[in-house]
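User: Can you predict the 3D structure for this chain?
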Amino acid sequence: MNQTLMRLYAVILVTGLSLSTIIQAESNNPSESMIEAEKLLTSLKIQAALDRSMSQMLDAQLQQSPSLLPYRDVMLSFFKKHMSYKTLKPDMVKLYSRAFTTNELREINAFYATDVGRKTIQKMPLLIGEAGRLGAMRVQKAMPELQSMIKAEAKRMGSGRR
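Assistant: Here is the predicted structure, written as structure tokens:
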């Protein structure tokens, strides 16, 4: 369990460092770009997506390290405190407002306000998930080929070193 906890701590540390290097909080007077970015995050339902991904990430970690299962509630509480939408929102708003101009954000928001835009928001996570499953199935099916390629490369590397 000690090694498992160390791996989890490493994941948490790397995630925290990555997020902390993004940006510091913005002033109390948000720019038009930041207002549009916040509208976009709301349209994209980022809060629900973050909550889902946080839970899925934790469940995946617990599947890999079942010895951590008794600590699920503690870890979930930690993630909610440090990686929730509420804590990440200022940085995310700033990221979007830096990636897009105010006019671009307005156009994106206008698109997501249309029927097609709303359908895109609804369908995109499902399509991305399905595409991931299709890719995983394809790789699984071709795994013998990869194993053969790895064996051939290992043999080539081994014979070249003599």
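The radius of gyration is 21 Å. Confidence is low (pLDDT under 50) at residues 17-28.
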